């Protein structure tokens, strides 16, 4: 990647992180509508569990900056930042989260089941479920002689699932063009990674499957961008899978309404002081980006999200009789 | 289903399945096969014999013993335009990979609002009777039939095996293709001879959602599937000697269940006996009987009965296993009891 396109990527990464953060900022008040003063998950315009991605944006943008529409991404139950970075239709995604007829799947899936076939994006609610499908999508590209790749996102908790180990072995045996991306936010719901994971670094587990393993420290979009670029280029060249572990953080609870009593005192404040988005803005300004350009990118990101929320709220609920559609193709 | 060749080309279900897969692989480059021991070995149950030699290791892939991994990968391949035919060697192994089947494959179409399809076939062996105990002998029809988003079929003979396999591969949905070990025609497993039938060498399909009348009769309807169809036919032959004509319905499809064909038959005979070798409770028999009882227009001449494996794990010792498995004798006995006033 030449310097100019890298600078374009950096502006895009900044704008996309801002878009994702603003998206979650719009979710928050909408989610609590009808859920105060007594929290009842079934109430309000956004019922059900809600997993926000605040803090994890560098994992999304640093990887997806290298992707095309024909590359496949499978994401997790915490999918908004990755979906936005992959280019999922923002209006249809927002409407899906509101359970509206205009949603990606007409309200059948909701926030944990976002599918956008146009950009080959899917996510799911079961830990490590998306890894096998990513290996399959990668094998499909390889068998067709195409240079598209697949990215499987997972959390640090998913690295302890059998499905993770089966998928890595299969990817290595098939030399499939797939990159496994661990967003290490240090928690599986309430259980700290250090209390449930036998290795300090999940990237070390790549050695068990004869593939490169990279650890990216600091929740830094540029660092993720550099490592992911190398792994994705390697996959496109037909040299096989890689594992990337990104040190990131969860600025919110596991789900909205999580009292977070399992966190050490002061942890969230310490993490917020290291928020990757303002840090990245400072770095870009220090390295010569024009503040007006960053402001314009921020404003445009926020405008798109605001428009998506306005449209989603105005959209019609699905006709309940359509519940029977699409069980079968 | 007419065919120019002599009607004596008899095949086993195993040969019929591998022939169907091979013909569809030749016709459609998107079709591929994956599973444990399906390439060099040709499948433990002969479902893929000769395919590696014909189509090579790219399209005929031996996988690691890693069912969650390769069934999940099949979903990814199916979403990307391939038509994977995947083998889960024994249906009993669903315990290590059910998430990839019922939470993933079966919900791709629904959760994507129809954007993503999952055209894959999961073929899997069912059934006991040969002393393999309760982790290699189960049927689990009801387990799979209960979960929405999958079609579930099982042939009782080689003709239907080929036609169902061709239909299953061409279907845009996940199809669980069960095959019964007692009918498979492997040299090392006993085989019911009636399952070895004439199989046209050309292209034909058997519908995935239709029951078939395996034998016509007026006095009693016996509904079954797979091996149970042969138990029912054996019993019907014995009943015929005393002038009783039993109608035998081969369900063929567990999901969707062809309730109309069953209701139509029981509407004529007034008597319903259901036979299957899955666990009794919440099973195929219960669903079929409920389907008839819910139809207020059917008047029954006898209380419906069901024969199934009792709610115990399948035991090893032949003395115990054959005590609990359905048989032609048990079908005959139940049928005679239902017909007693008529006999």
Automatic annotation (TrEMBL), chain B:
The keyword Oxidoreductase applies. Keywords: Oxidoreductase, Pyruvate, Thiamine pyrophosphate. Residues 11-186 form the Transketolase-like pyrimidine-binding domain. Pfam families: Transket_pyr (PF02779), Transketolase_C (PF02780). Coiled coil: none annotated. Transmembrane segments: none annotated. It comes from the Bacteria. SMART domains: Transket_pyr. Its cofactor is thiamine diphosphate. One of its GO terms (molecular function) is oxidoreductase activity. InterPro entries: THDP-binding, Transketo_C/PFOR_II, Transketolase-like_Pyr-bd, Transketolase_C. This is Pyruvate dehydrogenase. It comes from Novosphingobium malaysiense.
């Amino acid at each position: 990647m030449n310097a100019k396109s890298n600078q374009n990527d950096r502006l895009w990464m900044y704008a996309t992180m801002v878009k994702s953060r603003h998206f979650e900022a719009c979710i928050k008040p909408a989610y609590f509508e009808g859920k105060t003063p007594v929290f009842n998950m079934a109430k309000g315009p956004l019922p059900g569990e809600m997993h926000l991605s605040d803090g994890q944006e560098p994992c999304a943008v640093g990887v997806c900056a290298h992707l095309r529409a024909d590359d496949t991404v499978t994401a997790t139950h915490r999918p908004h930042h990755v979906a936005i970075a992959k280019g999922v239709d923002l209006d249809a995604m927002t409407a899906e989260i509101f359970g509206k007829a205009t949603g990606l799947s007409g309200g059948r899936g909701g926030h944990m089941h976002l599918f956008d076939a146009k950009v080959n994006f899917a996510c799911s609610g079961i830990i490590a479920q998306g890894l096998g499908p990513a290996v399959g999508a990668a094998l499909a590209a390889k068998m067709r002689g195409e240079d598209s790749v697949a990215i499987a996102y997972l959390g640090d908790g998913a690295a302890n699932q059998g499905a993770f180990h089966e998928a890595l072995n299969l990817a290595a045996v098939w030399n499939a063009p797939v990159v496994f991306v661990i967003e290490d936010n240090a928690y599986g719901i309430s259980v700290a990674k250090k209390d449930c994971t036998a290795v300090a670094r999940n990237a070390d587990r790549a050695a068990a499957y004869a593939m490169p393993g990279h650890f990216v420290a600091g929740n830094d979009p540029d660092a993720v961008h550099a490592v992911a670029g190398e792994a994705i280029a390697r996959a496109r060249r037909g040299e096989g899978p890689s594992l990337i572990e990104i040190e990131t953080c969860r600025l919110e609870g596991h789900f909205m309404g999580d009292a977070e009593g399992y966190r050490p005192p002061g942890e969230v404040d310490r993490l917020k002081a290291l928020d990757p988005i303002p840090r990245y803005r400072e770095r870009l300004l220090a390295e010569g980006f024009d503040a007006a350009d960053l402001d314009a990118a921020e404003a445009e990101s926020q405008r798109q999200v605001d428009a998506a929320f306005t449209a989603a709220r105005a959209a019609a609920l699905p006709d309940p009789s359509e519940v029977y559609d699409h069980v079968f193709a | 289903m007419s065919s120019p060749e002599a009607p004596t080309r008899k095949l086993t279900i195993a040969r019929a399945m591998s022939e169907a897969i091979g013909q569809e692989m030749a016709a459609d480059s998107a079709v591929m096969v994956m599973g444990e021991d399906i390439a060099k070995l040709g499948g433990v149950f002969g479902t893929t014999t000769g395919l590696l030699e014909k189509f090579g290791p790219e399209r005929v892939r031996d996988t690691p013993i890693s069912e969650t991994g390769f069934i999940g990968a099949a979903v990814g391949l199916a979403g990307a335009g391939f038509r994977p035919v995947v083998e889960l060697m024994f249906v009993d192994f669903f315990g290590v990979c059910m998430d990839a089947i019922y939470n993933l494959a079966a919900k791709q179409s629904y959760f994507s609002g129809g954007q993503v399809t999952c055209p894959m076939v999961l073929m899997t062996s069912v059934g006991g009777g040969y002393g393999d105990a309760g982790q290699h002998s189960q049927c689990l029809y009801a387990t799979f039939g209960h979960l929405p988003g999958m079609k579930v079929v099982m042939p009782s003979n080689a003709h239907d095996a080929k036609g169902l396999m061709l239909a299953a591969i061409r279907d845009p949905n996940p199809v669980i293709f069960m095959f019964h070990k007692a009918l498979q025609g492997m040299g090392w497993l006993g085989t019911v001879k009636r399952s070895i039938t004439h199989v046209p060498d050309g292209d034909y399909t058997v519908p995935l959602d239709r029951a078939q009348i395996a034998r016509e009769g007026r006095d009693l309807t016996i509904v079954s599937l797979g091996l149970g169809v042969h138990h029912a036919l054996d019993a019907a032959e014995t009943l015929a000697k005393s002038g009783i004509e039993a109608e035998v319905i081969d369900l063929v499809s567990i999901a969707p269940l062809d309730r109309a064909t069953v209701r139509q038959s029981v509407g004529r005979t007034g008597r319903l006996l259901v036979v299957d070798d899955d666990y009794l409770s919440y099973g195929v028999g219960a669903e079929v009987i409920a389907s008839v009882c819910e139809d207020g227009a059917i008047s029954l001449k006898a209380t419906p009965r069901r024969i199934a494996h009792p709610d115990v794990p399948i035991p090893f010792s032949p003395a115990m296993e054959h005590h609990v498995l359905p048989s032609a004798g048990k079908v005959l006995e139940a049928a005679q009891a239902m017909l007693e006033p008529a006999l």
